[in-house]
Amino acid sequence: MSGRSVAIVGGVTTKFGVRPTTWSELAQEVGAALFRAVPELRAGDVDSLFVGAAEPERFAFQSHVAPLAAEQMGLAPHRILQRTELACASGQSAIRSAYAAIASGLSEVAVAVGVEKMNLPSMAEANSAMGCVMDRAWDGPHGATAPPFFAMVAQRHMLEFGTTEEQLAAVSEKNHRFANSNPTAQFHEKTFPREKLLRLPVVAPPLRLGDCSSMTDGAAAVVLVSEDLARMYTDTPAWIRGSGQYSDFHNLANAGSLTEWKGLTRASREALDRAGIGIRDLDLAEVHDCFTISEVIEYEALGLCGPGEGGRFAEDGRGDIGGDLVVNPRGGLLGCGHPLGATGIAQAVEVFQQFSGSVPAARQAPDPEWALVHNLSGSANVHSVMVYQRGGVA
Amino acid sequence: MAETPTVPERKEMPLGTPEHAPKARPKLPFLLDFFPLETADQTRLHRFYDRLREGRLSTTRCRRDGNLHWPPRTACPTCHSEELDWVDLPERGHLYAFSAVLAGAPFGMEGEVPFAVGLVDLVGAPLRLFGRIEGKSWTALRIGEPVTSESYEVGDGRVFYRFRTIG
After folding, report:
1. How would residue B56 be classed by pLDDT, with cut points 50, 70 and 90?
2. CA-CA distances (angstroms) from residue A262 to A294, A373, A381, A383?
3. Measured between alpha carbons, how far is B107 from A124 in angstroms, rounded to an integer?
4. B 60-99 residues with CB below 8 A of A?
5. Given an 8 Å threshold on Cβ–Cβ distance, is B119 in contact with A152?
6. Is A78 labeled as catalytic in the residue annotation?
7. Are residues B165 and B99 in the same domain?
8. B163 found inside a domain
9. To the nearest whole number, what is the mean pLDDT of chain B?
10. Catalytic: which of A157, A338, A374, A383?
11. Residue A56: φ, ψ to 5°
12. In this structure, which long-range contacts are made by residues B17-25, counting pairs with CB atoms below 8 Å and at least 24 apart in sequence?
C-alpha cells in the first residue's frame, strides 16, 4: 500500500445523552476535553480539521459547521478544513478523510471531531430529520425512518433463519452491560436484564425499545498524526492498517436481500486484506448496533459465523468477554446512544483506550492487538470499515 | 421522456374513496413536508404524478437498454441514456416484509400512528416497492399478503401512492 502510515494518538468522548447544551457548546466541550486528554497537543500544530456532522441543518439550524467547530475548539487549520457527512457514518468519514490527508502528505497533524445535537423540543421534527436520511421524495412520504426498516430486516431474519426475540435481547443485554462500565454512555448505570428487555414497549414490530439505539446529544474527537510524529504523543498509537467502504443502493426498493449484507462483507474484506490479517485475528470489534438485528447480521457478514447463525452467536456469548472476540465493549450504540456524527469517532476513541489498557476491567479486551470498527449508514446501504493495530506490539 | 404504449392494460384506480379519505394533513413548510412538489415547473418527473392522478402507478424504462427503474428517473443508471419511456406498473403485489410505526413518526404524521409499512413484490415486474400498507391492521398482516396499489389525495392538489390489502 502506498502512502505514509497514520496513527490515532489520543482522543476523548463527551458525556452522551439528553444534554442541556447546544451544538456549538458540545464542540467547545469536546475541544477542551481533547486538550486535557492529549496534553502533548498544541493547537498551532493542528493543520487540518475534519468535522463529522450528519444533520446540523436539521437538528441545529446551522450550516458551515467546519469553521464553527474550529472556532469553538480553538483551532485555526491551514491545510484542510471540511465537514464530512455520511449520515450515521459521518464520524468514521471524518477519520477516513484525515487518514487520507495524512497518508498523502497533505497533513501532518489532523483532528477528526464528531458533533451531533439530536434532542429537540419537538421530537417529531427530529424524527423528520431522521427520515431525510432515506430517499426523501419516494420513501419519506410513506413515513420511512430507521426503526420500521430495520424491523423488516429483523422480520425477514426471523423468517429465514429462525432468529428469536431472545437472541436479539442477548445483544442488547451485552451492550448495555458494557455501557455500565462507560461513564460517557447515555445508559450508564441502567441495567437491562433480558427479561426486562423482552417486556419493553414495541417501537416497530418486532423491535422493542431495547432493540433500538436512541436520539443522543454528544461529541467525540481524535488526533491523527503521521508515522514520524506518533511517538511524540503516545507509546500505544492505534495504527490505521486498512479501510474499506461499499455502497450499491439508496432507495429501499433497491435493497435486494434484507438479511445478506454483501456491502459489509466486501468492505471488511478490503480493510482486512489491506491490513494483511483475517477476521480470526481480531481481538475486538466496534460494530454498528443501531439495532440489535444489525449486530446479529454484522457477525454473519463479517464472517465471524455462517449466514443465519448470528442469533446463535449472540446467544452463545461469542461476542462477549471470554468469547471469540469482544464486540462493542464501549457499550455500542445501544448502550452509549447514537449521536450520528460522533459515534464513529467515539468507537475509535474506545479502540485507542483499549489498546492503551485504560478502560475498566469489566470491558477490557485481553491484550488486544487488532481491532475493527464498522459503521453502516442509512438503510444499511453504506458500510464503512477501518482496521487498527496497536503500536508497540513486538 | 416520451409518452409510449404502456405495458399492462389496466383500469383506473379510484382516488381516495370516502371511507379511506386521508385524515386532514396539516399544511407544512417545505422543509418539513416529505411529499414532493409535483408540477412541471418543479420536477421533470411531473408525468409520474399526472398519471398517478389518473390512478396509474408508473415508472420509467430505458428505451436503449430496456432497464426498468424504481424510482422513476431522468437518466438510465446502467447506460446513462436520457431516452426513457413511461410504463404502467402492475397493480397487484405481495408483501415481502412489513412493520409498523407505533412511535417516532415524522412531523405531521403523528396523527396517523399506528400505521403499517412494507416492501411489496409486484406481480409481473422485477420491482419491490416500499410503501404504506392500508386495509388490515398491522397485527393481522402476514408475509405474502396480497395487496394492490392505489393513489390518494395528499391535499392542495397533490397525490401519492400506497398499497391496500385485498380481501
Report:
1. very high
2. 13, 17, 10, 9
3. 4
4. 70-71, 96-99
5. yes
6. no
7. yes
8. yes
9. 89
10. A338
11. -60, -30
12. B20/B134, B20/B152, B20/B164, B21/B153, B22/B152, B22/B153, B22/B154, B22/B155, B23/B111, B23/B112, B24/B155, B25/B108, B25/B154, B25/B155
- Are B47 and B94 contained in the same domain? no
- Active-site annotation holds for A288: no
Asked if residue B33 belongs to a domain, the reply is: no
Structural domain of B131: 90-167
B9-29 pLDDT tens trace: 444 444 444 444 455 667 899
Q: Tell me the shortest Cα–Cα distance from A100 to chain B, in angstroms.
A: 29
Asked whether the CA dihedral B105, B108, B110, B113 is positive or negative, the reply is negative
Shared domain for B115 and B129, answered yes or no, is yes
Answer whether A146's CB lies under 8 Å from A279's CB: no
State pLDDT tens for residues A158-208: 999 999 999 999 999 999 999 999 999 999 988 899 999 999 999 999 999
Structural domain count, chain B: 2
Q: Which residues of B touch A202 (CB under 8 A)?
A: 102
Characterise A296 by phi-psi region: left (phi > 0), alpha (psi -120 to 50), beta (else). Answer: alpha
Domain boundary among B88, B106, B125: B88
Query: Cβ contacts of residue B167 below 8 Å, gap of 6+?
Result: B146
CATH number, domain containing residue B116: 2.40.50.140
Give, as one character, the DSSP assignment of residue B157: T
CB pairs below 8 Å between A and B: how many? 115
Q: Which three cell numbers stand for residue A274?
A: 489491506
Do B51 and B68 sit in the same domain of this protein? Answer: yes
What ipTM does this complex have?
0.95
Tell me the one-letter amino acid at A67.
P
User: Cis omega (within 30 of 0) on the bond before B114?
Assistant: yes
Find the CB nearest B36 among A123, A131, A137.
A137
- The reply to whether B16 falls in a domain is no
Asked if A347 and A378 count as a contact pair (C-beta separation under 8 A), the reply is no
Give the DSSP per-residue string, A196-224: HHTTSPEEETTEEGGGB----BEEEEEEE
Cell numbers found for residue B65: 437498454
- Cis before residue A206, ω within 30 degrees of 0? yes
**Are B110 and B156 part of one and the same domain?**
yes
Question: Whole-prediction pTM value?
Answer: 0.95
Calculate mean pLDDT across residues A143-155.
Answer: 97
Q: Give chain A's domains with CATH numbers.
A: 6-121+216-233 (3.40.47.10), 143-215+241-390 (3.40.47.10)
> Does some domain include residue B32?
no
* Tens digit of each residue's pLDDT (9 = 90 or more) over A291-324: 999 999 999 999 999 999 999 999 999 999 999 9
